[in-house]
Write a structure and sequence with these properties.
Catalyzes the condensation of the acetyl group of acetyl-CoA with 3-methyl-2-oxobutanoate (2-ketoisovalerate) to form 3-carboxy-3-hydroxy-4-methylpentanoate (2-isopropylmalate). 45% of the residues lie in helices and 14% in strands. It is an alpha/beta fold. The structure holds 3-methyl-2-oxobutanoic acid (KIV) and zinc ion.
């Protein structure tokens, strides 16, 4: 049996930090319902001290989730944040407080203006303080991707000793290269005493377009939780996309020694829902859930897919709840695709006639980005009229 990788969804917290993507409580509840249906292990429902609306969202989602999943609220390493998160999470059957502090030189010197010793002290205190309220306390080491490794290990050692159940290693600025991030996780897995009793979590951002690669390197090197968002929503270039890591683990489970419990057939529905509610459209060529993820446009690819789907498709669209493979007719399409679509519309032609039909098709296709069924219907009718005349 491969290792279970916990999927920690932060669409409603880090995802919502995406400019223009804010949601009200009712909208968050609709998304939370879909996340539960999809089988996520943890929902990060918000940052309770940030606003009364976020407080309410965390409380309502805590009530909604019941035993289905862990519900988590974010805090800074500040007592009043933790008090407020505990209050919001009182409705949850499986509450988790997610607290932490910056650990990189830039966070220590420029943002927090504290020494390394003060940082360790505050890290220990926030975990111990949160433990007064809940058993399940996750610690985040913000900007771990740019931290000194020895100092990161010192902080993580201290919070593990203080009782953290999960340690989150974020590459907050999306700066790391996958192999280096993997080495960071391995360093923690090898050197922190007692780490085998806690879950190492990876939380990566997409500033260099490598969030998914980093998360998977984390998993290869000992992480057992991935923090991610639907459609990769999030600050700046976004967070790790849930659908990408889940499908990568599904496709490469053996080599990663990993599996998730996500109902992958719900991924497309989740993507559409989040896009509709946030108003953030999904790029057409987005992996797994983009409109073109299973669309084939060139003649060579179309011919291959029509002969055997797996020549150019590694995922069965049904596995992610997508409508199916699509053959897009354009000036790049070949005979096979046109013949196939015409046959689906009920038109078949002898080889000799078909060459002429194909030439007519190319003339239309050269004027348009895509040739639709209506174009084919009028092309065939026009030809029938010409032949009859
Ligand atoms: O990117 C980050 O470091 C975060 C933390 C608050 C977990 O979102
Ligand atoms: Zn983040």
């Amino acid at each position: 049996m491969t290792r279970k990788i916990h999927i920690f969804d932060t669409t409603l917290r880090d995802g919502e930090q995406s400019p223009g993507a804010s949601m009200n409580t009712e909208e968050k509840l609709v998304i939370a319902q879909q996340l539960i249906r999809m089988g996520v292990d943890v929902i990060e429902a918000g940052f309770p001290i940030s606003s009364p609306g976020d407080f309410r969202s965390v409380a309502e989602i805590g009530r909604l989730a019941g035993d289905d999943c862990v519900v988590c609220g974010l805090t800074r390493a500040v007592e009043k944040d933790i008090d407020r998160a505990a209050e919001a999470l009182a409705t949850a059957k499986r509450p988790r407080i997610h607290t932490g502090i910056g650990v990189s030189p830039s966070h220590l010197h420029d943002k927090l203006r504290i020494t390394e010793d003060e940082c360790v002290e505050r890290a220990i205190h926030c975990v111990e303080y949160a433990k007064r309220y809940v058993e399940d306390v996750e610690f985040y080491a913000e900007d771990a991707g740019r931290a000194d490794q020895a100092f990161l290990e010192r902080v993580i050692q201290a919070v593990v000793k203080a009782g953290a159940t999960v340690v989150n290693i974020p590459d907050t600025t999306g700066y790391q290269l996958p192999e280096d991030f993997g080495r960071r996780i391995k360093g923690l897995a090898d050197n922190v005493i007692g780490i085998e009793n806690v879950i190492i979590s990876v939380h990566t951002h997409n500033d260099l377009g490598m969030a998914t690669a980093l998360a998977l390197q984390g998993v290869k090197n000992g992480a057992r939780q991935i923090e991610c968002t639907v459609n990769g929503l999030g600050e700046r270039a976004g967070n790790t996309a849930l659908e990408e890591v889940v499908m990568a683990i599904k496709m490469h489970g053996e080599e990663l020694d990993a599996h998730t419990d996500i109902v992958t057939q719900e991924l497309t529905r989740a993507s559409h829902l989040v896009s509709r509610i946030t108003g953030m459209s999904v790029q057409a060529n987005k992996a797994i859930v983009g409109a073109n993820a299973f669309a084939h446009s060139s003649g060579i690819h179309q011919d291959g897919v029509l002969k055997a789907r797996n020549t150019y498709e590694i995922i069965d669209p049904a596995d992610v709840g997508a409508a199916g493979s699509e053959i897009i007719l354009s000036a790049r399409s070949g005979h096979a695709a046109l013949r196939h679509r015409l046959a689906e519309l009920g038109y078949t032609f002898e080889d000799a006639e078909f060459d002429e039909v194909y030439q007519r098709f190319l003339e239309i296709a050269d004027q348009k980005k895509e040739v639709y069924d209506e174009d084919l219907e009028s092309m065939v009718q026009e030809r029938q009229r010409d032949v009859a005349a």
